[in-house]
Amino acid sequence: MQTTNRQVNSSNYDDQSTKTPRIATVKRTTGETNVQVTINLDGTGKCTATTGVPFLDHMLHQISSHGLIDLDIQAKGDWEIDDHHTNEDVGITLGQALHQALGDRKGIVRFGNFLAPLDEALVQVALDFSGRPHLSYGLQIPTQRVGTYDTQLVREFFVALVNHSQMTLHIRQLDGINSHHIIEATFKAFARATRLAVEIDPRRAGVIPSSKGVL
Q1: CA atoms within 13 A on the CB side of 200
Q2: pTM check: above 0.70
Q3: DSSP 54-85
C-alpha cells in the first residue's frame, strides 16, 4: 500500500487574530473611583498594579505572572470609606478591557481549566469565554480579613470581572484552611485557566469557536 505524507501549509492557518496584538485600554471614572486598565493578552507577565489596596495588587500580579498577561492597572478610590468600591471597579474595568482585547474571539481555544495547589489549599477554576456571564463561586474562606483586605471582596471582584468580560466562571475549593493560601490559589488557577482559554488554536485560527458561529 502506498502512503503519502500530507504537508500542511501553515499559511492556511494564518489569520489576523494571530498577528494583531490583543491589547486594550479602558478608563472608568465614577463619583467613587477612577480606574484605568491596559491589558496585553500576548504579553510576558509584566505587571504594574497600584490600586491602593495592597492585597488586591498582590492578586493582580498573580493574574499577570501566571497568565502571561501584561497588566497596567492604576486606581484611585474612596479608600476612606473602605476598599469595596475600588475592588469592584477594578474588576469591572479589567473585565471590560479583557472583553475588548478578545475582540470577536475568533481562533481562541475558548475553554480553560486549571487545578492549583498552594500548600494545603487546592482550588480548581474552569472557565468559558462564552459571551454568557455566569459565576459559580465555591470558596469557603475561614477568616473575614487577610491583613486589611475583607475576604468578602474576592467574590465581588470575580462577579464584576465575569459580568463585564462575559465569561462563564466556576471556582471550586477542594481543600484549604489558610485564607491567604485559598485566595492566592484561586487567582493562580484563574490566571492559568485564562491563559489556556485565550491562546490561539492553530487548527481554528480565524474561526469563532462555536457551533453557532457566534459568541
Answers
A1: 21
A2: yes
A3: HHHHHHHHHHHHHHT-EEEEEEEE-TTT-SHH
